[in-house]
């Protein structure tokens, strides 16, 4: 069964955000978006409302929409969530790798890091770069092999599903990559405390930029 139009509009808008096609402090009209998506205004309006409920965009009465600028409290919540969830996962993965150096999740992380190198130049496609960034974090969460934890990767909390936050202050890709390297290095050394600390540094990088 095909998606309802509002769901299709939502997915397309999310992809546009993920690809960096929306800019902070720039207003976009409902009519403009509907034309770009080749849809009527009703499903687009419903999709926009869902994104507003998720605090990814702000609806400006009679003025259109714009990307949501996180409040200080929201940034703090993202920081705490990332450390609590991903920090625990990286620590457990380091322990698992110490017992089994053939761990499939660590192998996948290494491949992701190799692929990310091709997108460290800020002129290369942001969407492709962020897809790899996101996959890195997804592998960390999935490595726990706990269905509940894996379901959290779809959460609006944390920094995992908010590429627009990296675009806000132009978080350097090299800095993010360096954080990933530090996390992976600690995991490969079986040092769970260093892996947790590296994850905290990564979350702190994002928080400082915001």
TrEMBL record:
Record keywords: DNA-binding, Transcription, Transcription regulation
Keyword Transcription regulation: yes
Top-rank lineage group of the source organism: Bacteria
Magnesium is among the record's keywords: no
Gene3D superfamilies, A to Z: GntR ligand-binding domain-like, Winged helix-like DNA-binding domain superfamily/Winged helix DNA-binding domain
A matching Pfam family: FCD
Domain named GntR C-terminal: residues: 77-205
HTH gntR-type domain: residues covered: 9-67
Chain segments annotated as transmembrane: none
SMART domains documented for this protein: FCD, HTH_GNTR
Name of the molecule in the record: GntR family transcriptional regulator
Protein source organism: Coprococcus intestinihominis
